[in-house]
Specification:
single chain; 129 residues; mainly alpha; 0% strand; Tyrosine_recombinase_XerCD
């Protein structure tokens, strides 16, 4: 990516991947290129042949990878450009591994809950507010 940016020598406001006239690629153009190169990739990787690969699928996959890496949903919402985190919640779904990690962080059912004791430094800080 750095090489591409260095060679293009564009201004920060220029499109990252310009079309033939120097303007940003349209959604249809992006979809065309994704489809074209997915078809080419399927020749070397036959398991891709029956997969539906589109810009939306790539976007969703990116969001799920961020979620599985532990990135907060609000950060993913910003990454995707969503105005509302509720939109992001619809977009994401927790897979089984993610659910297992969440369960592993909970206390066992026979655990007696304890009372939280804040450190002295925290109490001093809070009293100073």
């Amino acid at each position: 990516m750095r090489t591409w940016l260095a060679e293009s020598r564009g201004r920060p406001a220029d499109p990252l991947f310009p079309g033939p006239r120097g303007m940003a690629l349209t959604r249809d153009a992006v979809a065309f290129f994704v489809s074209k190169y997915a078809a080419a990739a399927s020749e070397r990787c036959p398991s891709l042949t029956n997969k539906k690969i589109s810009p939306h699928v790539l976007r969703h996959t990116c969001a799920m990878q961020l979620l599985q890496a532990g990135v907060d949903t609000s950060v993913i919402a910003l990454w995707l450009g969503h105005e509302s985190i509720e939109t992001t919640q619809i977009y994401l779904h927790a897979d089984l591994a993610l659910k297992e990690r969440a369960l592993a962080r909970t206390a066992p059912p026979d655990t007696v809950p304890g009372r939280y004791h804040a450190p002295d430094a925290l109490l001093v800080f809070l009293e100073g507010l």
